[in-house]
From TrEMBL:
<dbReference type="InterPro" id="IPR036396">
    <property type="entry name" value="Cyt_P450_sf"/>
</dbReference>
<keyword id="KW-0408">Iron</keyword>
<keyword id="KW-0349">Heme</keyword>
<protein>
    <submittedName>
        <fullName>Cytochrome P450</fullName>
    </submittedName>
</protein>
<keyword id="KW-0479">Metal-binding</keyword>
<dbReference type="Pfam" id="PF00067">
    <property type="entry name" value="p450"/>
</dbReference>
<dbReference type="InterPro" id="IPR002401">
    <property type="entry name" value="Cyt_P450_E_grp-I"/>
</dbReference>
<keyword id="KW-0503">Monooxygenase</keyword>
<dbReference type="InterPro" id="IPR001128">
    <property type="entry name" value="Cyt_P450"/>
</dbReference>
<comment type="similarity">
    <text>Belongs to the cytochrome P450 family.</text>
</comment>
<keyword id="KW-0560">Oxidoreductase</keyword>
Length: 416
């Protein structure tokens, strides 16, 4: 039986930090293989890229999530005990919570609240010289997400919660100061979320039963009992934090509008083009580079042996840019979505497969709709300038962002 090609380095962790998003793709190209072994974070790891690999990765008879996520991610991005690390019936039960809250009605309500915050922000930005868009979007979406979830925010609290939610995302792939800041932010945010859930449970905070905060507080586990307080807090943050993360897509959309100004006019005139533009932004800017699982039991795939317990990483970023699935994959071309085959495994910014039965993101439609609504705001409801700044994106920084976090100026509301 052939053996999986191995990366020659003793340990790839330093190269991963140096090469960032390109780490898996670089080695796949060098080794001429969609799969390779490497020692990463002190463990023998199999890395994979491409549509076929994604299909394998989301086969839950072969791969599982328990103990898969690196500890540094659990301590920052995900938290411990959340839906990301569950398998089988326990996962389906927990996932039901997210799917119910993020249904068509939930998405529409969140977009409505997002638009209201957007509109208020335009009024505010008109009076300011310089807007750091990433930060402003995070604040705007923190306010809207909390309102959507029925999470109360004191008038002076939004900035603090925004910084905590944003730090968990920003520190996910960070080391040193960025990592420790994310850990502190998670601890503070979990305490805050647990306090809110406790108040709902003991009746001191009155929230309608169908509101996300109440639904999380009362969601039953397989044993019929509510989630442990700490875990319910993790899940509440699993709703708020990723809504704030959509800010990154908005920033990238503004960058693409800057590079392709003809699209501004096209988006002004056509509702039908909003979705392909949003999709192309999401395809090119998958800001989580990979997802992790473990081999459930030994199996063979394409002649290679996968041994029980081995950690497997699926390349999200590289799969979205695989030339076998995407013609001229590095080119920004929203129109390519007119011909996309709709595969659940070749466009995996938010995971692959079926969100109901597997780990694919339950917030994908919400992310798309928030991005489309933001594109409407940017192209139809306001004008702005983009002053000279450093827009370079360091590919080794995870999550990536333009150095300047995208500054806009001269904001003016456009009357409709
Ligand atoms: C900003 C855009 C977003 C990106 C790039 C993103 C990306 C991802 C990725 C890569 C996964 C992991 C898939 C896997 O493990 O196979 C995931 C899972 C998840 N996402 Fe998102 N997501 C986004 C927005 C959202 C939103 C808006 C929500 C909810 C409000 C959300 C909630 C979740 C949850 C709860 C999971 C865990 C699902 C599970 O383990 O079954 N995400 N997301």
């Amino acid at each position: 039986m052939p053996t999986i090609p191995r990366d020659a380095s003793f340990d790839g962790s330093v190269s991963l930090l140096r090469e960032g998003y390109d780490f898996i793709r670089n080695r796949c190209e060098r080794l001429g293989s969609d799969v390779f072994r490497v020692r990463l974070l002190m463990q023998d790891t199999i890395c994979m890229t491409g549509e076929d690999a994604a299909r394998l990765f989301y086969d839950d008879r072969r791969l599982q999530r328990a103990h898969a996520a690196p500890r540094m991610l659990q301590k920052t991005l995900f938290g411990q005990g959340g839906v990301q690390g569950l398998d089988g019936a326990a996962h389906r039960q927990r996932k039901g919570l997210f799917l119910a809250l993020l249904d068509e009605q939930g998405v529409a309500e969140m977009v409505r609240l997002g638009n209201a915050e957007w509109s208020a922000a335009i009024d505010d930005w008109q009076n300011r010289e310089r807007i750091v868009l990433l930060q402003e979007m995070q604040l705007l979406l923190t306010r809207a997400a909390c309102r959507w979830a029925a999470v109360p925010l004191a008038p002076d609290e939004a900035q603090q919660r925004c910084e905590q939610l944003a730090a968990m995302i920003d520190g996910a792939g960070g080391v040193a100061a960025r990592h420790w800041q994310a850990r502190r932010a998670r601890k503070a945010a979990e305490d805050w979320a647990a306090g809110l859930i406790q108040q709902v449970r003991d009746g001191t905070l009155n929230v309608a039963a169908d509101q996300p905060l109440a639904v999380v507080a009362r969601h039953a586990e397989l044993n019929g009992r509510p989630m442990e307080l700490k875990i319910a807090a993790v899940e509440l943050l699993n709703l708020l934090r990723p809504i704030v993360a959509v800010s990154r897509f908005v920033v990238y959309a503004v960058e693409e509008l800057l590079t392709h100004p003809q699209w501004r006019k096209r988006l002004q005139e056509s509702d039908a083009l909003l979705e392909p533009f949003a999709q192309e932004v999401r395809r090119l800017y998958a800001f989580f580079p990979f997802v992790a699982a473990r081999v459930k039991q030994d199996f063979e795939w394409n002649g290679y042996r996968f041994t029980q317990g081995t950690r497997v990483l699926l390349d999200l970023y590289g799969t979205n840019r695989d030339p076998r699935s995407w013609h001229e994959p590095q080119r920004f071309d929203p129109e390519r979505f007119a011909h996309w085959n709709g595969s659940a495994f070749n466009f995996i910014t938010q995971g692959g497969g079926d969100p109901a039965s597997g780990h694919r993101c339950p917030g994908e439609r919400l992310a798309i709709e928030l991005l489309k609504a933001s594109l409407c705001m940017l192209t139809r409801h306001m004008e702005y300038a983009v002053p000279a700044q450093d827009l370079r994106i360091d590919p080794s920084r995870m999550p990536a962002q333009p150095e300047s976090q995208l500054v806009i100026s001269d904001v003016r509301r456009v009357a409709q």
